[in-house]
Amino acid sequence: MKSGEFFIKPVMAGRFMLDGGAMFGVVPRVLWEKTNPADRNNRISMAMRSLYIDTGERKIIVDSGAGTKLSDKMVNIYQIESEDFSEVLSREGIDPESVTDVISTHLHFDHAGGLTFYDSDGNI
Question: Residues 58-106: pLDDT tens digits?
């Protein structure tokens, strides 16, 4: 999508499940469940989306999904489907090495986990 001189592209970084009541707060379940059906654990499916912004001079990523460093327990609790963020970018036709700036809106696992990764020696 073009917005003025900017090219903006949503990037699907993965999916996870989160408690529906936590997401919708005081909104009654009977209302939100129509569009967001819950599983037997009251969890709803959530998308992790990042943004790629190309200004012509800068190539910016906003948020990076959950990444691949989470514990098995965390992955199981939230049913996280995620992969190395550089692989996500490559699949979208974005060279990870070309990124000049990264913006994290906040540091929850589903927004910032992909900022770092393990190298071939297992180091972050």
Answer: 999 999 999 999 999 999 999 999 999 999 999 999 999 999 999 999 9
- In this structure, how many other beta carbons lie within 10 angstroms of the beta carbon of residue 62? 18
SS3 readout for 72-105: HHHHHHHCCEECCHHHHHHHCCCCHHHCCEEECC
Positive or negative torsion for Cα 111, 104, 22, 25: negative
pTM above 0.90, yes or no: no
Q: Determine whether 107 is exposed, middle or buried from the number of CB atoms within 10 Å of its CB (0-12, 13-18, 19+).
A: exposed
Q: Determine the Cα–Cα distance for residues 17 and 39; give it in Å rounded to an integer.
A: 9
